[in-house]
Structures are given as C-alpha cells and as structure tokens.
Amino acid sequence: MATTSDYQQMLRGAALRVTRPRVAVLGAVHALPHADTDSIIREVRRELPEVSHQAVYDSLHTLTAAGLVRRIQPSGSVARYESRVGDNHHHVVCRSCGVVADVDCAVGHAPCLTASDDHGFTIDEAEVVYWGLCSDCSTTSSA
C-alpha cells in the first residue's frame, strides 16, 4: 500500500509540484480503483474537507496528463480513474450495476488486437471493453 510519501515522490518523479490536493487525489485513486469523480471528491474530502470540486478536477486532469492516473470512460458511463498505468490492460463492465474490473491484455493469438489497416498510424495501444453481467448481477437475474 502506497503512503503519502510515495505519492509525493510520484509527483516529483513526474516533475509536478507537490500540493495537498494532488497528494489526496492520487491517494483516493489508489484507494478506489475505477472510481468516478464524485467518489474521488468524497474520499479526498475525508482528508481535506475544504477542497473544492475544481481542485479535484484540476488535479485529476494534471495527474492524467502526467501519466500517473488513467482515465477511462466505458460507453454510457461517466469518466472513471485508475492508478494502473503503463500497461495495455483492458476492462470488463457489468451491464446491470456498472462495476468495472481490470482484465489483463489478451494472450495467445488475438487477431482483433492487430489493425487490419493502420491508415499510417503508429499504433501503441488497443482498448478493449468486455461487457456482461458481474457474478452478483448474474445470480440476481437467474434467481
């Protein structure tokens, strides 16, 4: 589990100024994988009750731009943030409750991850979202 000191070092390593809101937002994203902005604001306010919505939004934007946080937005969902960065993992989303979980990159032969025509792009990432029902929702719908 990362500490405040770890978050401060992460910010410094990304050449970012260390501020209390940035440290708190980074901590919230690590504590709440795939959290939406409102959840992150609530978590940050446990430590910094006076923090504004704008300070959290600005911190999320800065942390995302610096590559310390990843922003995802599955179709039909609000933006969510995660601390797992630097790899090409994917996500599975429950159609019923909206829970999101990480899925490691496909292994073995995965022809859908190779573009049939790259249109001159240098492709460095493929984004895949798997959709279905989580175990809780599957159990509820079959009961």
From TrEMBL:
Q: How is the cofactor bound?
A: Binds 1 zinc ion per subunit.
Q: Name one GO biological process term.
A: regulation of secondary metabolite biosynthetic process
- Please name the CDD domains in this protein's record: Fur_like
List of residues binding Zn(2+): C94, C97, C134, C137
Q: Which SUPFAM superfamilies match?
A: Winged helix' DNA-binding domain
Which Pfam families has this protein been placed in?
FUR (PF01475)
The cofactor(s) it depends on are: Zn(2+)
Q: Does the record carry Repressor as a key word?
A: yes
Its signal peptide is none
A single GO molecular-function term is: DNA-binding transcription factor activity
Record's keyword terms, sorted: Cytoplasm, DNA-binding, Iron, Metal-binding, Repressor, Transcription, Transcription regulation, Zinc
Per UniProt, subcellular location reads as: Cytoplasm
- Would I find Metal-binding among this entry's keywords? yes
> Could you give one GO CC term from the UniProt record?
cytoplasm
Q: Which domain of life is it from?
A: Bacteria
Q: Which residues form a coiled coil?
A: none
Q: Which family does it belong to?
A: Belongs to the Fur family.
Name under which the protein is recorded: Transcriptional repressor
Organism expressing this protein natively: Nonomuraea aridisoli
